[in-house]
Structure formats: structure tokens, C-alpha cells
Amino acid sequence: MADEGETKAFNADFWVWGEDEVKPRLLHAMIRVRDFEESLRFYCDTLGMNVLDKFDVESRRATGLFIGYGNYRESALLELTQKWDVDEYTHGDAFGHVAIGVPDLPGLVKKIEAAGYEVIDQPKVLMTGGPMVAFAKDPDGFAVELIQIQKG
Question: Is it the case that residue 58 has pLDDT exceeding 90?
């Protein structure tokens, strides 16, 4: 029998645990979304992330998707969760943004705009000596900070 919260869709090989994990680290952040298809169009088709795992948590009446640029052993992921019985979510004012490092910020901003998403702040340097950053909104209104990670 599955542990509480675990479903048949749970992929134990996906999670990080074992003798080689010796220090704490950030694994993922979760945001609730209204529409997986639209969220995947933004995060995967536009920003280039990949869907790594999909699972149902019947005890929470929710479906989750892990997306990212690597796997749990390589980087932190973003979890998109959709509650089965909820159509709309209320945003609080405490959550700031998700930050993503990108090699071509100006090119990605153009791609985001061409896909019909809102760019809140165009690329600019916020602090002397710092990288260029821009902000966009995902389909649910969450802010996504995009940070230029390559010089030149």
C-alpha cells in the first residue's frame, strides 16, 4: 500500500534521497495554476523548460507537474499544482517572483512578447556591475524574473 500522499503515479526514482545526499539544498517551489496547458505553453514552449514528472495526490485532490531545466540532482524545479475542485486562486501579496537565469535575455523577451505574454520590465541593469534583468508575467499572473547569465 502507498504511503499517505503517494499515488500510483508517484515515481520514487525521481526524488533525491540516498547516501550521496549529505547537505540540505533547495529542491522546488510550488505555484498553483488554473490551466496546465496554458502554463506549459509559457514555461515549456516559451521559456524552454521540460516536464519531468506528473503525479496525482488524491488525499489533497490535486495534480502536480514538476518542470525545469534539469532534474532534482541537477537543479531546483518548479512544481505546478492544479487543485481538482478549484477554478480560481487568490494571489496574496507576500510572494515575489520566480527567478530564471537565461543565456540570451533580449532574445527571450522578444519570444515572450511574440507568444502574447506580458513583459513587465524590459531588460535593464538594476545594480552597477550586475547582470541585465527583465520581468514577465506567467498565465496566472505570477512574476518571473529573467536574469542574463552570459556576459557579452
Answer: yes
**Residue 56: is its pLDDT beyond 60?**
yes
**Are the beta carbons of 10 and 53 closer than 8 angstroms?**
no
Tell me the per-residue pLDDT of 107-143, one tens digit each, with 9 for 90 and over. 999 999 999 999 999 999 999 999 999 999 999 999 9
Select which of 6, 38, 113, 145 is catalytic.
Answer: 145
13/125 Cα distance (integer angstroms): 41
Pairing relationship of beta strands 119-125 and 143-148 according to DSSP bridges: unpaired
* Cell triple for 122: 524590459
Joined together, the cell numbers standing for residue 65 give 507537474
* Ordered structural domains, the chain, with CATH: 26-85 (3.10.180.10), 96-152 (3.10.180.10)
Q: Cα(22)–Cα(25) distance, rounded to whole angstroms?
A: 10
The letter for the amino acid at 130 is: G
Which residues are bridge partners to 83 per DSSP? 62
Residue 5 to residues 8, 36, 42: CA-CA distances in angstroms?
10, 21, 28
Q: Tell me if residue 4 is catalytic.
A: no
